[in-house]
Amino acid sequence: MTSYNELWNQVLHAIQESHYFKDDIFHTWIENKTSLFNIDNQTAYVSFKTMITHQLLSQENNKQLFESTLSELYGEDLSIQYFDYKEANQLMPSIQVQKKTEEIAQSSLNPDYTFENFVQGYCNQEAYAACLSCCTQIKHTFNPIMIYGNSGLGKTHLLHAIGNYLKKERPEVKVFYAYSGQLVTILLDAMKTKNVYGNTVEQVKEQLSNYDYFLIDDVQNLKQSSSQEVFFTVYNQLIARNAQIVMTSDMHPNELSGLQNRLISRFSSGLITNISKPEFDTSKAILRKKLEGNEESILIQDNVLDYLASKFSDDVRNLEGSLNKLIFNATIENPEVIDLDFAQRILMKEPVIINQDELTMKQIKKAVVNFYGFTYKDLEGKSRQKNIMNARQVFVYLSRELLHKAYVAIGQELGNRDHTTILSSYERARQKMENDKAFSMAVDKVKATLKQ
Ligand SMILES: Nc1ncnc2c1ncn2[C@@H]1O[C@H](COP(=O)(O)OP(=O)(O)OP(=O)(O)O)[C@@H](O)[C@H]1O
């Protein structure tokens, strides 16, 4: 079904194309100054933002033009009632909330974030496969899908890829995509208006539960406890209707503080999949992908790609950024080819300052997994592989030395381990600091990345 927003845009477009109004009048007083917010009982409710707009639209001929164009596009005779937009907000808060929800749901997906443009590697293949396969399944086997990983590793890209794929290949399915912050706004708005005009919360719940795909980015921000209540119901209804839910988060669901346990345990019931930083070859493939189509105009030596891939692949955003910086500077300096000297000169490292006062166990954990190239799952899991055990000890040691955290708290952060395990892990780490050079170097290196 066409939304009111789309319908009104079609009306405006048709009227603009007819050149009934002079272009400057149309742009200044009509476009972006009006909005259709409800149709009920053969009446269309349109809000206006300025008095001049109102006067213009209320003139008999103009009113008729809008009514006939709207009626034709809607397929039914309609008359229009105009409202000041502030009045309209108060008049129909529930409709405003509904409208906002619709607008967010339709918020544009980045057309560049497609499956075709996503480079697969060991670091992301499970997440990629899960996202692609959920687009074609009718009965969803893994529900919800939760993708977690550090910033800039492609989580949002995959979520948009699902949306873009469905838009093209299965236009009949209803897709909701939002940042969790937008979702919280919708839910809080609904709650604010619930006792004024009908039960807006119920309407929004119903509206949200009606989607076939529900894509929520950065779910760790869904912290407002009152909105979690509403989300919980919507979540259950969506699952009961076999709608696919896909969420991203910057940490494993078990680490999501501020979210209710019942939500976390539901998040964990489908497929939890991690994206880690790209391996060297994947980083290079990403760089090549970004250069695709421009190979003729951007001459870049292969060892420059090696350099970028080895230096900036902790965050694909940085990787892309470093490449863009080189390309941009090449347009200024016009070298014959971007070689290693040029790249190193342009990309001289600028220090990133982390405020030590804000150092948390999560940051230490992130630094440890980045350093060792493991996932959070590995670190928290049961594996007794030597490297993973070392990584755990580094984490425990730094959490004690830098943050003076209790063994219990460290244990909770490390996959709910018992405090006696953490105590012995710390003792072992202390001994190793004295007699195991490799271990003490690892500790220093991780510590150094925290100071950057
Ligand atoms: N495997 C990949 N192939 C191609 N591009 C990628 C890949 N991974 C990440 N990118 C690109 O890196 C940039 C950052 O990715 P994205 O925004 O999806 O990260 P994110 O994990 O959602 O980060 P955040 O948690 O900060 O929101 C985007 O431009 C995205 O296209």
UniProtKB/TrEMBL annotation:
Top-rank taxon, per record: Bacteria
Q: Where does ATP bind?
A: G152, G154, K155, T156
According to the UniProt record, where is the region Domain IV, binds dsDNA? 331-452
Q: Where in the cell is it found?
A: Cytoplasm
Instruction: Write down the CDD domains for this protein, in alphabetical order.
Output: AAA, Bac_DnaA_C
- List the Gene Ontology MF annotations in alphabetical order: ATP binding; DNA replication origin binding; lipid binding
Q: Taking every annotated instance into account, which residue ranges of this chain make up the domain Chromosomal replication initiator DnaA C-terminal?
A: 360-429
Asked if the keyword Oxidoreductase belongs to this entry, the reply reads no
Ranges for domain AAA+ ATPase come to: 141-279
Single GO cellular component term: plasma membrane
Which region ranges are annotated with the description Domain I, interacts with DnaA modulators? 1-88
Which keywords accompany this UniProt record? ATP-binding, Cytoplasm, DNA replication, DNA-binding, Lipid-binding, Nucleotide-binding
Checking HAMAP family in the record gives:
DnaA_bact
What this chain does, per the entry, is described as: Plays an essential role in the initiation and regulation of chromosomal replication. ATP-DnaA binds to the origin of replication (oriC) to initiate formation of the DNA replication initiation complex once per cell cycle. Binds the DnaA box (a 9 base pair repeat at the origin) and separates the double-stranded (ds)DNA. Forms a right-handed helical filament on oriC DNA; dsDNA binds to the exterior of the filament while single-stranded (ss)DNA is stabiized in the filament's interior.
Which family, according to UniProt?
Answer: Belongs to the DnaA family.
Assembly and partners?
A: Oligomerizes as a right-handed, spiral filament on DNA at oriC.
Name of the protein described by the UniProt record: Chromosomal replication initiator protein DnaA
User: Lineage of this protein's species?
Assistant: Bacteria, Bacillati, Bacillota, Erysipelotrichia, Erysipelotrichales
